[in-house]
Design goal:
Elements (H helix, E strand, L loop, with lengths): L2 H44 L1 H16 L7 H15 L5 H29 L5 H17 L10 H12 L2 H4 L14
Helix pairs in contact: 2-6, 3-4, 3-5, 4-5
Length: about 180
């Protein structure tokens, strides 16, 4: 081997090492962004302002009256679903943070969502994707989970838990109007 050949090999090794370092740095950066986004979404969902929105949504779904009041929550999970489908959020993180509520709101709102989708096929498409994705994780992680097929009693209890959030949100400001699915 000549000195020139050794220099070329060393340069190639250095280039490969640089590419690997950049790839690892990018992967770490993406993981940090994903975690940050997940925590911001969790903070928003748990905020006093959003508790008021969740309370109104749960009451509407439980009573099957003014179910449009649930659309802000559906829109929230539509956004989480979009981020998950586009891999800006990791599905396991989403499952850990939101499975319970995704399951409750999808199950309780299924009929309303289906009615809306008759007129707008893409309405809450990513919410549906998200529901199936986190349900798949739940089934894999805990095949005997009671939440895989919510009973009517459990669904009512979970909706009552959401309705009970209202006193926590009593001092919160007014909620924003929904801009969901063609309205």
């Amino acid at each position: 081997m000549t000195w020139g050949t050794l220099e070329a090999i060393a340069a190639m090794i250095a280039a490969v090492a640089a590419v690997v370092a950049i790839w690892l740095q990018n992967k770490s950066f993406k993981a940090n962004l994903t975690a940050d986004l997940a925590m911001k979404l969790d903070d928003r969902f748990g905020s006093p302002e959003y508790s008021e929105i969740r309370t109104k949504a749960a009451r509407a779904l439980q009573n099957h009256v003014d179910e449009e009041d649930a659309e802000d929550v559906f829109d929230f999970f539509e956004l989480v679903g979009l981020f998950t489908r586009r891999k800006a959020l990791d599905a396991e993180i989403v499952h850990s943070l939101f499975f319970h509520w995704i399951n409750v709101y999808w199950t309780a709102g299924r009929d309303h969502i289906a009615r809306k989708q008759r007129g707008a096929k893409l309405c809450w498409k990513d919410f549906g994707y998200l529901y199936l994705k986190v349900l798949e994780i739940e089934m894999k992680e805990d095949p005997s989970s009671r939440d895989i097929s919510l009973s009517a009693e459990d669904l009512k209890r979970y909706l009552n838990d959401e309705i009970a959030l209202m006193p926590l949100a009593a001092t919160a400001g007014n909620s924003q109007e929904s801009a969901s699915c063609g309205e």
